[in-house]
Amino acid sequence: MSVIQRIQEKQKWVFGTIAAALFIFVIQDAFFKSGNSSRATTIGNVNGETIEYTDFENEATLIKEVNSQQQIDQDQLNEYVWSQSVNRTLNKQEVDKLGLVYSGKEFGDAVASNNPPENIRNQFGDRQSGAYNPEMAKGYLTQVNALIKKNPSAAQAQMAYYSIIKTTEDQELAKKYQSLVTGAVYAPKWLAQKTSADNSAIANVSFVEVPYQTIADSLVKVSDDEVADYIKRHSKEFEQKEETRQVAYVPFDASPSHTDSAAVIADLESSKEEFRTTTDLKTFLQAKESKLRFYDGYIGKANIQQPNKDTLFKMQTGQLLGPYVDGNSFVVARLVGTKQWPDSAKVRHILVSTHQPDQTTGQLQRIADDSTASKRLDSAIAEIKAGKSWDSVCLKYSDDPGSKTKGGVYDFFAANAQMAETFNDFSFDGKKGEFKKIHSEFGFHYMQVLDQKGSQTAYKFAYLAKPIVESQATDDSVREEASKFASSVTGSNSMKLFYDNAAKIGKQPMVVPGIQENAFAIGNPGYPGSLGKGRPFIKWVYQASIGSISDQPYKFGDKYIVAILTGINKPGLMSVETARPMVEAKIRSEKKAKTIIDTKIKGGTLEAIAQSNGQQVQIADSLYFQSRGKFGSVVNSEPAVIGAAFNKQLQGKLSQPIAGLSGVFVIKGNSIAGVASTDTNLEGQRKGLEYTLKSQVMQQQQPRQGGISPLQKAADIKDYRSKFF
Q1: Could you tell me the pTM of the whole model?
Q2: Domains annotated on the chain, with CATH
């Protein structure tokens, strides 16, 4: 793992290696077109245009290679690539209809300009000012182009195509399309005048609210018929294009027992003396299979995140603390040493790699012997000492893709365990301006400390950590219990037996509606009954028939489940079971509103209504029609109330009861007035309104993660991923 990737582990997609633009435009079809491959199988279809499995797999592989230092969840990656593939196909269909293109000449001109697309600018920003450096970009592209010509099928070329060319092409075509769409948006002068008048209006009302919480939820039951009626009344919101299925399951707890925890503690206690006295902590902790890797470097106090850290900081060198609980582990900590270090450091380096992470396992694999790598770095050092600029030498020799185009610089960072130990130690032990050649698990570095700030205590701790896991005996026992329950549900009346037998063992089945065939998780986070990731279980769900018991107990986290398929919902309106979690609270509020209006709104004045409900008459004196009212007023978030406040017919009169979001309101209009506008620039207001409308259109075209764009809603999309994953 390169140092820069260790530092930036929270950045989800880090695009590194790039290559020559014009050359890659020539060879790009070879990277993402499956040709006559015997493995070419359709994984999806968008408006009649197929997405081939080989193309899908190639893109997923390239993303993993470009982000080889990141931990990428395969299910999330598949979902990401699918979303990208669908959106790319839809966008391409639209831009093709319009005849839009992004040519190689446009890309070349962009690279040479002072205002390139953002992802190119980010790759070649000046390390001091951050300004784009076109000469650096062109020089590097030319250098890499020579390497690619030697081997056009090299992974480096493919990564370059994906991370720079394809990304830029997709983004620029999307901009052209968005420009055409938003170009059709126009705000007329009369709309600006009306908006200005509405925004300058201010209302003053008195009101009484009877909150829904005055009626306990337990007193308001929501029937299946009521859910079905709500679905019909809001049918557009509950249309589903895909089939979904529903299961009920019985959980069996397989979390570690007290006996399991006691065994872990006993094991740690028996190892404490050896842990305290050993001089080879790395070997000892590896032999003990400690869950926490030994970081043989110092970490700043602010960057140590451990339970009981205040106690840890009071320890003496060589002292132990624990066993204590840290997440799902028992831990014994040993203080190895302390130092006074700067708070942060700024350095630059040139890395010649000897090891890189394996694409599959993430384990470091040797790519060059130490002698060869060391001699290559010596050549770089010699060129620097001979007067060549550091930046040009770094660009030529460094194997750290995240920093080589920026002079190898890491701006101010704190001492932390994301850095290679020797790299970290020299950054803070070295003096400002000092150079040094160091060796890390990734290779050989030539480093210079550029600056340091502040002062703090840095610590080196070693942690002997053992996970709190169930023993095989515990797991076997729970699995056997679950299997026994499954075997008790047999025959044609399986649904009744499932619930009856669950009741006999004191368990309440959980229901999970809305399971989609291509989902990788069961249920939505936060909803009762959600299970999380589980493709094998979902595949069983779509092979089963109603009333079928799961073919085996499935394990999710610390529990086994036995499930029964209870429903199949064909495309169309959602079933009651699927929609209930989304609408139950809304229906309950509707029923509470009716009860309050029918039984609690009594009297001809606000004072009488307030007194009969134990409420108070309140005043909202600064309500604006198209913006939030005065902070602190409950009606700020009540659109229906704000609308009624500007009804001139309610001035000096009581309104009918208004069913709001949080309760039932009765208001009395006191006044509606206009606020003198200090902005006489009507054309400026019109342009501002137009900009807002265009922004809203763009947001609809590019919905947030999980959202659906208008193009997706209108498209005929067939998803066959379940055949492959």
Answers
A1: 0.62
A2: 14-183+709-723 (no CATH), 198-236+579-674 (no CATH), 242-255+471-570 (3.10.50), 258-339 (no CATH), 344-453 (3.10.50.40)
